[in-house]
Each structure stands twice: as C-alpha cells, then as structure tokens.
Amino acid sequence: MADQGIHVRLQQSGPIPLDAELSCPPGEVLALVGPSGSGKTTILRAIAGLLRVRHGAIQCSGDCWFDGDAHVWVETRKRRVGYVFQNYALFPHLSALHNVMEAMLELPVAERERRARDVLARVRLAGLEHRVPAALSGGQQQRVAVARALAREPQVLLLDEPFSAVDRATRQRLYLELAELRRELAMPIILVTHDLDEALMLADRMCVLHQGRTLQSGDPYAVMTQPQTVEVAQLVGLRNVFRAGVLAHDAGRNVTTIEWRKHRLEARLQPDFKVGQQVNWAIPQGHIVLHRRDRPSRGEHENPVSGPVLEYLPLGENVALTVAVNGPDRPPLFLTIPAHAARRNGIVQGVVVGVSLLAEGIHLMPADESRTPAKPA
Amino acid sequence: MDWSALNLSLKLAACTVLILLPIGIWAGHALAAYHFRGKAWVEALLALPLVLPPTVLGYYLLVMMGGASPIGQFYESVFGRPLVFSFEGLLLASVIFNIPFAIQPMQRGFEAIAPEVRDAAACCGLSRWRTLWRIELPLAWPGILSAVVLTFAHTLGEFGVVLMVGGSIPGETKTIAIAIYDRVQAFDTAGAGLMSAVLLLISLLAISAAYFTTSRTRSRRHG
Fold first, then answer.
1. Domain A238-283+358-377: CATH architecture, name and number where available
2. Per the CB < 8 Å rule, is B116 touching A92?
3. Which pLDDT does position B85 carry in this prediction?
4. Which residues pair with A249 in a beta bridge?
5. Which residues from chain B sit within 8 angstroms of residue A48, using beta carbons?
6. DSSP state of A332
7. Does A286-356 carry CATH code 2.40.50.100?
8. Residue B91 belongs to domain with CATH number
9. What ipTM did this prediction achieve?
10. Dihedral angle sign, alpha carbons of residues A298, A303, A308, A313
11. Residue A228 in contact with residue A216, Cβ under 8 Å?
12. B106-122 per-position pLDDT tens digit
C-alpha cells in the first residue's frame, strides 16, 4: 500500500544542498550510505523534524509530517520517531529506566515503569535499570538509546551510525542483536552508516548518497556490484573501473563482449549498451581470480589477463596487490588475495601474475568523461 | 556589630537572587539555545555592569530613578514616596548590577548541554516545559547554583552602587559594606573587623557550599 511505510522527498539548494528521494516499507531496513558530509544525518534530522528543509514532502504511515508546497510542518515532538543518535544523547542525569520512561509520557506513571522495564529487558538490560549512562558500557548505552527510541512505539526508527562509538567486538555483538530485534519490529527502519559492510549485513535496501543527492537505491549487494554510474561505483568502493568499447552482444550465450586494452573480455549480457559505444566497466575484487602459477587450471580460459605486480601490500591475513595490465602507466587492476595464497604462489613485487576476470562480475556503465581514470584505456 | 545592616544586606541579597533567578534562567536559556541577529550586542550590554566602575553605574541608576526621571516620577505617583534612597530603589539597582553575575553562569550552564540531548528530548515527545524542567534545569544546575551564589555574595559586598543609589539610611539602605566603611571612618576598627569577618565567613560558606554541591553532581554524573 502506498501510504504505508515512509516516503521522503527533500530538496533545497542551501545552506546544505539536498536532492533526495527515498522510501522504506514497514519492517524493512534502509541503509543510507555515503561519505562524510554527504547529507545522511541531514536527511535523518529532516525526517525527525529537527531540521527544516525548503521543498519536498515527508509522509509516514499515511500521516503528512512535512509538505513544503502546502506549508505543512509537524514539529518533532508530535512526530512519532524513534531516533538513536550517534553518541546516543542519553539524558546523563537520569537512570536507564527513567531515560526510557521519559519517552512514554502518554502512559499513566505506573504503567510507564512496567513498560520501560519490559523494553529494557527486551534489549537485555534487565538488572541495570537504575544505572546512569556514565555507569554503563558503550554497548549498554547504545541499548538504552535503542530502548528509549522504541519506547515511543515510533512510526519510524532512525539509527544514526549507531555502531560507530563502540569497540569492534561490541559492534559485532550489537549487529547480531539488531538483526534479531528488527525481525520483531513492524516499522520502517532507516540506518545511516558509512560502512558498506554494515549496510550489506543489516539492510534490505541501500541508498547511496553524495553531496545531498540520492544516487542509487536497491538491494545492497546489487548496488555494490552493479552501480549505475561511475560515481556510485567509486562511492561503493569499487576500485577497478576502466574504459572499454562494446564489441558485440550474443543473447544466445548470454554474453556481451567488450574490448579493453586490446583484450576481448566477455561480460554477462548487457544489451542496453550499443555496439561501438564507449562505456565504463567495473569488476568487484571478488570476481577477480588469481591463476595458480605452478598448476594452470580450466578457469584460466575466462577473460585471462596478466601483468607484473606493481605493489604488494600485506594487510594482516590478506595481501593487496596492484597488477599492471598492458603497461605500468595505465590504471592497474586492484585485487586482494589471502596471504597464504600469495606465499604459496611465490608472489612478490615484480612477478608476472595471471588473473581471470569473471564474466558475471563485469558490469557496464555509461561512459563518464569527468570521472574516468586519467589515462585512456 | 551592626545587626540591622547585616540583616538588611542579607534581605537585599535574598530578594535580588529571588528576582534574578527566573530572569537569569529565561535569559541564560534563550542566549544558550537560540541564535539571533544582534546577539553579541545583547551579550555585551548584559556584561556592561562587569566593566563599568560602580560609581558610574550608580550615577546612571541615580539619574534613572531620580524624581526628574519618568521611572522615578511614576514610582512616586503610585507609592507616594521617592524611589531613590529607599530599599526598593536599592533592590532595583542591585538587580541591575547583578545581571551579568546571574545570567552568564546560567548561560554557560545551558550551553554545556549537548544539543543532541535537547533533540533527543524533542524526539521523545517532551514538551518545552517538560524539557526545561526534567532535562535542562537539572543539567544546567551547577551553572544556576554558581549564579545564585555569585549574585548573593556580590550583593553582600557591593559598595559603590549602594552608596550612590541608597545613601546610608539605617534600616533602609545602610548595608553591611557601608556600615563597615562607617566604622572605619569612625576609627572603630574592632567593629569594622568583626563585621568584615562575618561577611568573609558568610561568603566563604556560600561559595564552598556551591563548589561542594557542583562537584558532587559532576561525580555522580560521570560515574
């Protein structure tokens, strides 16, 4: 139903430029991702009514919270939003219990306490109700913030980088808890993050933002592996973006052939691009397979390219490699392989390695003159 | 020991605090929470009594409240007696010269509250009053307490303005600071010394109580 969930459209030219449109149905998690300053928090604040935007509209569960043209503006305290702030913004002088109770003022006092204890128990804080925030760990504070946000029975839950202020081990645990909790929640959940893995793990949909504009929305894995533009490709961390020309489409074999630096590469069929057209193409690192140097295998027939290792950078259990294909002055291929695989294959700087570019991972995008790597491919 | 002067000073200080408490909370909160054009000018004007010599301030207050001024005439027409050299006149002057001592610490107190905490209160559905009462006042409490103590102690000790506006009418406008001056003029150093010691003790007690309370609040909040 169109009036379920939340629908947001925000536009203004300043002071913070915005041109954003997003929707999130009930029970789903929408991740807003983008670099710092891309307007993620601004959008969240606008949804909560903490920031007034010039144009646009916000509809939530059929209620109109904001309509720039009709001069509708519902103030924050009248919108039912659950907001988990980046640093939680707990009331420092109140106990966990009273932090949660403050969000339940519509209930009678006795009822309030009972319900607040329930909500705290739901986020595994039973027994810590009387502690003030300073006497709780980072993870526990985050849970109080989530409990307080849920206590209002909100029409939308807004999470602003809720995992950024805790250590890594706690973060992993909180991911699982949130994943578990969200199954019980029936409202739309909007999660702001700059961490793509977080979006991949927790979100049903992802929306990529840059400079206040929503660039692409969709299934997180699809957005990350099949960006619509070079800009999105760069924002989702795809480093292997190159130029090529489209040679042919073969619907029977489900293949589009492109020419890249004299190599004929087969990609999955993408007939929207015309034969002869210049395109950008990208490949996620997971779709680049290193050939074994001692024992060639069958997989090597799939789009093989080779070149010397330009850079060899150990990163703990993995090694980041850059491989020069058709000359060291052209943008190299980036790939990450397990450290043991690098050792076993005797890979060091300067060694020539072969890789296969898996066809299903080769993704074409319209040519973007402004963002193409400096050297033509 | 001039008990009536001490009594008058304590009464003046208490009344000044009572009047400035709501004004300071309102103004300190507004200055901390909102940005508006000309805010720097307003802040400068409110801080003016800090830098003006008390006699200059006293002179202007005397002119402002005198029988020739609209305020003085209005007061006289309503109450049938002049505003200057009366306790009410002294109280008005005391309120004005204590404005920065009351507002500034409270403003700092409200400014110390993280803006997200106010946002969180709005997201919880708290009304402005409830936010002020349950969240902002308790959090700004150290600043408010400082303001109360500073205003109280400063009123007890003020001399120049009091002398200009109040004169030295026993029981009406003769405060302890003026009584001490009078004693010194009369070569009664023992009397002056005793009263000075009492004033010192009261001020020390007030300021220690303030420090003690704020440090306890802080340690409770920061675990």
1. Beta Barrel (2.40)
2. no
3. 84
4. A256
5. 119, 122-123
6. P
7. yes
8. 1.10.3720.10
9. 0.83
10. negative
11. yes
12. 999 999 999 999 999 99
